[in-house]
């Protein structure tokens, strides 16, 4: 029995190390892409790119909190999930400010930059998605990380669609609309995480 307990303990420790490694990798990917995409959004005057970059920041925070909660008691896992949901909600609401500025200036975003950086973000999130696939049915924090990454991929496709429409129509409206849709997806996802965490608490 002692040998079995030792094997079980070793397996749990090995699984925790694998989760930690994956979370660190996706955290670094998202933190890097936040700076890259946010800078591109500022230069390109793109609501969609900036919204997507803030979603990357929200995900980086979720992954950081997931690392904090790893191996801790269920109470701390739920507190971490609640905190990550609140962070996402704040960032989602913050995204709503950018379209007001763009509508007042009527700047047409740079469609080429939107396409290039939107595609780069999609590649980064696809890598993260497959790294996290094994944990999509795990605890609340690991589920939250996988859901965030899945939403990001949807957002990235939205940015690419916005880039095509901005180029075709020579109008900032597609970019603004997609940016607002991304904000709505973030807020909806955050509300779900907050609700699940509150139930568990």
Write a structural description.
By secondary structure, this protein is mostly helical. It has one domain (2-200): Up-down Bundle (Alpha-lytic protease prodomain-like). The chain has helices spanning 2-44, 47-69, 74-95, 97-105, 111-132, 140-169, 173-200. It is elongated and about 55 Å long. The model has no long low-confidence stretch (mean pLDDT 79).
Topology (SSEs and partners):
Elements: H1 2-44, H2 47-69, H3 74-95, H4 97-105, H5 111-132, H6 140-169, H7 173-200
Helix pairs in contact: 1-2, 1-5, 2-3, 2-6, 2-7, 3-7, 4-7, 5-6, 6-7
Task: Give structural attributes.
201 residues, mainly alpha, Alpha-lytic protease prodomain-like, 7 helices, 88% helix
Distance from N terminus to C terminus (CA atoms, Å) equals 34 Å
CATH architecture type = Up-down Bundle
CATH class: Mainly Alpha
Query: Structural class, judged by helices and strands?
Result: mainly alpha
Integer average pLDDT: 79
The tally of strands reads 0
Q: Ranges with pLDDT <50 over ≥5 residues?
A: none
